[in-house]
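Hi again,

Forgot to attach this to my earlier email, sorry! This is the prediction with zinc ion bound. I've pasted everything inline since the attachment limit keeps bouncing my files.
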Amino acid sequence: MAICQNCGKRLPPDSDGEYCSKDCSIFGKRRKNGFCKKCMEETTDESAGRIYTLNGIGTTLRSASSELDDYDECPNCGSIVLLKWFSFVKPIFPIDRYRYLPLSRWKGITDRSKEFIARRIKLNPLRKLEILVAMKESNEISEEEFKAEKNKILTGN
Ligand SMILES: [Zn+2]
Ligand SMILES: [Zn+2]
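Structure tokens for the complex follow:
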């Protein structure tokens, strides 16, 4: 008996021989191929970890902009950009940005299926500098540490 490579259901007679439906074809291929080269390069191996809230406290995923449908979808692999937020009843502050590859039909920010693979987006040098300046201004790091870290960023190390 031929079964769908994505969901394992029996293939209907008019199928392509691999997947039972258009959705299973899209998500089955994503599962197999993962992120494209470009998305791999702009991210690190770190996953988003568990996304959960308990009594209103925890983490949630949101789109990068206030336009809720702006996910910067990749034309090659279908990944989208989402921010992991610390939330207390509602999202309070963003923790990190991820490229997120949904492995089932993406239902938007209310999606609770959480079937996905995620990779953390690398910080660009300008953003790293901004964080460093903020740390120095709040005296979290000394002048020497600031200079050393700034050199590392400017020389790309
Ligand atoms: Zn299927
Ligand atoms: Zn991609």
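The CA atoms of residues 64 and 82 lie 6 Å apart. Residues 36-122 form one domain.

That should be everything now.

G.
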